[in-house]
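Data card: per-record layout.
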Amino acid sequence: MKTLNIAIAGFGYSSKVFHLPFLTQDPRFAIRKVYERQTNRAAELLPEVEIVRDFASLLSPEIDLVLITTPNQTHYEMAKRAILAGKHVLVEKPLATSQAEAEELATLAKANNVVLAIYQNRRWDDAIATAKTVLAEGLVGEPVDCEIRIERYAKGKNVKQWKETGEKGTGLVYDLGVHLLDASIYLFGKPQAIFADIRYQHDGALSDDNFTLHLYYLSGLKVALFASKYAREAGRHFTLHGKLGSYVKQTVDPQESRLAQGQTKVAEHEAECGILHTEINGEVVCKPFPSTPASYADFYHNLYEGIVQGKPLAVTPEQASYVLGLIEKAFESARKGQKIPC
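The structure for this 342-residue chain is written out next.
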């Protein structure tokens, strides 16, 4: 079994919650270096790992894969440097801050024969994985409406100052919108048009903190995506209506919250059930519907096989690039107050 040596750029929430629990439990991966500009936080959890003060030090010959978890504005430049150094690269979403940058990185990765992966882990959320099953099995008939919400409550602006500068790549659309758009394309394919309402609700906000995105499809399907930071009581997380029935799930997948609480036995994740209310063999049924088994660990299984065995990635740079193009069209729509063709 080949072990992939990993270097991590950045050691904040993303590294500790979304990546370490999987990398440290899987013998196929070995973390060798961590880039921290000033702090030594990695030493507490990874005492054997070398901490370096400049990104170039991550690109040494023994490193196979560079994981980039730094602020969004740095993703493009760091990923480009790692690719040109011949390293496989995993980038936290978003891949870059523009579609043009993402397309350039995809082209460079192919030219340098390295894998470029993007951490769109929410494809492995229970509602999304289950909706994929529901659609594949035709359990609600032809889909006509879908609504996905990720709503939270934050009294003030984000404590991570880089997320509040107003620069391109910051704000809630680039934070949660990229997940919701990726999930929509994963479930339903590319839309015909997009309409966006993007708002700035916190006092003095420079970066967006509330949005509604509507995706329109040739079939007549409409997908509505919502995110907010002023919702003490969140609405239903996932709703799918079809011409036969509905699949709904009230709550967001608990994987992130469990990982944040230190529950590192990720394989023991138990998804919560949604409700399927539909017609099966001429009979109307309404019952709890078991979630399709899915775990963020599945992302890493796919990544390893993509690097070592050359298998196709579940999340491709081309898909990530398309989503960034949709984000750019969403901001155009919000400025103009009109639908934008896709």
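Known properties of this structure: The mean pLDDT is 94. The longest strand covers residues 143-151.

See the next section for split statistics.
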